[in-house]
């Protein structure tokens, strides 16, 4: 028996050593592959417009125009203007009618899209790589020469009001996150919704939209990005040719980000007619360029995401997912780390049965306190691998790469190479996670937003009192 035990111990030791060597070899190969990825080239033109591209061996390309303009640059009277322009952007220009624009895009087999956020507006075109010059010209025309006539404004107003009603009735996740921003950043522009209040939509006129575009769509606030079979030198020439006339100076003071203030508070919209309660709880996070951003992302990944339709259930690596599956605490949850240029929101969103709000929140806050005090090395290693996998999966194809390039260059002035990001994630330790959790989560006032039958959700002071543990 003793000899068998010795043999078993020796075999286990050899297996562990072999696994360690294999893991080390794989990690080295992985880092080498990332370091051999095509670099992102960035050039700043004389006007201040930045041009960025990454060569991807693909017949399909994506080109985008990223503009530093969104809901947080609006005031209470103009809130909704950026999104209003989104609905007018492809209605024709002074050079092309709407039908001519649509026929031209269709003949190329291309797809145009525009998306407005709280901090950025993004125009993108997906096309064959050989058609990039034509799509750059079309995007430049749309941005510089919008038609903006009264008939189009009237039709867009009706569409937007209809969409707001649909969101309020059917997309309660988005409603909750709007309420979360509204209460967390109350009194500051980051509390603005992208849609804007209905009263503003009804009163906005073509001149208001035109004034907003003229004030914000300036060369220093723009990035032209592309990914696909494109060359940086050619993209620079296209930018000079089609976007070179965009003004680089401002009439008066350039738009600036207003100071942001986080307020621990809550907003509840009780509606007992809904079948589920929709809840989000968050603390103030950090900005996108902050040194704590990666550790907070690892912490968020460690809490995880779960849906009752997922496989795994009680065998999930996330302790909160195991509890949710075993005790039927919720229908789904997702931990999030939203980062803006100067601040962020770190927290969790979940949907649960009306009588499970208290139990679900109890388990959530227990997990948060565990992050602050006793998270283990093994858990952090698993979370780091998951985070790296998710980040790389999100960069599949020219469209995702183009969007990543544009947003990073607009926020940071450069795009972080993948091997640098991988190294920063790999350097996060369990102690780092505990440290950032203590700074951002432990004994902090949270922001709470809830919609639905939320009577069972604990009152704010009880939620606040569970943001720390008294340990003797």
From TrEMBL:
Entry keyword Zinc: yes
Keywords: Hydrolase, Metal-binding, Metalloprotease, Mitochondrion, Protease, Zinc
Subcellular location: Mitochondrion
Keyword Protease: yes
Residues in Peptidase M16 N-terminal domain copies: 50-197
Cofactors (names): Zn(2+)
Example GO molecular function: metalloendopeptidase activity
Domain Peptidase M16 C-terminal per the UniProt entry, residue ranges: 204-387
A GO BP entry: protein processing involved in protein targeting to mitochondrion
Coiled coil (UniProt feature): none
Cited InterPro entries: Metalloenz_LuxS/M16, MPP/UQCRC_Complex, Pept_M16_N, Peptidase_M16_C
Sequence intervals crossing the membrane: none
UniProt cross-references to Pfam families, sorted A to Z: Peptidase_M16, Peptidase_M16_C
Gene Ontology cellular component annotations, sorted alphabetically: mitochondrion
Name used for this protein in its record: Mitochondrial-processing peptidase subunit beta
């Amino acid at each position: 028996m003793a000899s068998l035990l010795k043999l078993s111990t020796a075999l286990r030791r050899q297996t562990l050593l072999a696994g360690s060597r294999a893991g080390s070899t794989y990690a080295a190969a992985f880092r080498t592959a990332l370091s051999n990825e095509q670099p992102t080239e960035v050039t700043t033109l004389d006007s201040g417009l930045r041009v960025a591209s990454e060569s991807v061996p693909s017949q399909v390309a994506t080109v985008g125009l990223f503009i530093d303009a969104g809901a947080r640059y609006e005031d209470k009277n103009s809130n909704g203007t950026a999104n209003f322009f989104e609905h007018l952007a492809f209605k024709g220009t002074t050079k092309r009618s709407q039908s001519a624009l649509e026929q031209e895009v269709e003949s190329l087999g291309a797809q145009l899209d525009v998306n407005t956020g709280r901090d950025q507006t993004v125009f993108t075109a997906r096309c064959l790589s050989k058609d990039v010059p034509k799509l750059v010209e079309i995007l430049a025309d749309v941005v510089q020469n919008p038609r903006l006539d009264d008939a189009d404004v009237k039709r867009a107003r009706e569409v937007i009001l209809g969409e707001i009603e649909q969101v309020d009735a059917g997309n309660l996740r988005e409603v909750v996150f709007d309420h979360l921003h509204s209460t967390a950043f109350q009194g500051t522009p980051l509390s603005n919704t992208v849609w804007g209040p209905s009263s503003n939509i009804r009163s906005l006129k073509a001149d208001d939209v035109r004034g907003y575009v003229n004030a914000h769509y300036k060369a220093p606030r723009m990035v032209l990005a592309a990914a696909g079979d494109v060359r940086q030198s050619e993209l620079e020439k296209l930018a000079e040719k089609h976007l070179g006339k965009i003004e680089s100076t401002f009439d008066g003071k350039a738009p600036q980000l207003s100071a942001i203030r986080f307020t621990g508070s809550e907003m509840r919209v009780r509606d007992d007619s809904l079948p589920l309660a929709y809840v989000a709880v968050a603390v103030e996070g950090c900005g996108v360029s902050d040194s704590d951003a990666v550790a907070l992302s690892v912490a968020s990944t460690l809490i995880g995401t779960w849906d009752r339709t997922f496989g795994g259930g009680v065998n999930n690596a996330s302790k909160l997912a195991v509890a949710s599956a075993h005790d039927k605490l919720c229908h789904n949850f997702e931990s999030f780390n939203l980062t803006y240029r100067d601040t962020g929101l770190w927290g969790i969103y979940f949907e649960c049965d009306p009588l499970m709000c208290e139990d679900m929140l109890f388990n959530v806050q227990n997990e948060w306190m565990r992050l602050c005090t006793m998270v283990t090395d093994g858990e952090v290693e698993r979370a780091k691998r998951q985070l790296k996998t998710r980040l790389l999966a999100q960069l599949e194809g020219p469209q995702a790469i183009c969007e990543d390039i544009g947003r990073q260059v607009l926020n940071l002035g450069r795009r972080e190479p993948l091997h640098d990001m991988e190294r920063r994630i790999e350097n996060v330790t369990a102690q780092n996670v505990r440290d950032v959790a203590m700074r951002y989560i432990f004994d902090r006032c949270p922001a709470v937003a809830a919609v639905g039958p939320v009577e069972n959700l604990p009152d704010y002071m009880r939620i606040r009192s569970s943001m720390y543990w008294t340990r003797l």
